[in-house]
Specification:
- It contains 11 helices and no strands.
- By secondary structure, it is an all-alpha fold.
Amino acid sequence: YWLLIPVFSLLLLSHWFRALRWRQLMQPMGYNPSRLNTFFAVMIGYFVNLGAPRLGEVVKCTILARYEKVPAQKLVGTIVAERAFDVICLMLVFGLTFVFQFDIVSSLVHTYIYPLFQNKNGQPAFHKVIILVAIVIIFFVGLKIIFSRFGHINLVQKFKEILTGVWHGLISVRALKNKPMFFVYTIAIWFLYLLSTWCGFYAIEETSRLTLADALTVLAMGSVGMILSPGGIGAYALLVMETVALYNIPKEPYGQALGWLLWFGQFLSFIAFGVISFILLPRVNRVNKKTDETTPGYSA
């Protein structure tokens, strides 16, 4: 149980770097929120996501809009930019896993990925890909028609404002003053995820022989599990169990136990840090406001 200390510490540090990276994306738009408020918003967002997936992204934007006066619609763009970089990082993690764990990745792809693009007879189902592409094209064409013909309607105008804010957030990456630091934050976030996964192996004697390279595979598949289900519940543990089974570790009880332990560590960190952030956010800002009001030259 003492392993919760290093795992929590690594996860907390990764969340801090994520807050700093998000804050950096706001700076080109002329906003410079405090580090603490940004961190609190990130942790509260994670906490809300546990009960209402994706709502946490909206909540953390509204928190900064309230305490830092940053327009929420522009923050949506920075979140989209963050997610885009996370997807790229996940692809890089899979690339590194493919290099260092080729046999393992091949087995996982044949088991879980190929069936999604095959029919009942095991043949490639090209019609599924065509349907997906057609849906995307119809969506964007329909969006363009709505904007051109119904642009005078208030609801459509509001939606256009949101999209404009998203665009401003996305292009803010090009205007970053310190681009190298942005990539340092990104690498640090994922490296800390990797270390926390590796630390978790030592909670069970049967998985303690797994290496850092093995943790890379578990991180990649676990990340997919976090995407597939709300908060990763069920899917994360299942994919971790199936992954470590390829290292000759029995699925039950050890693989299953490892999957739930790694997931529970993240779940518990979101609850603990989220609740603490809920408590500290208004208190810290009340103290800061009183300090500003007592500062000579302060003007309401």
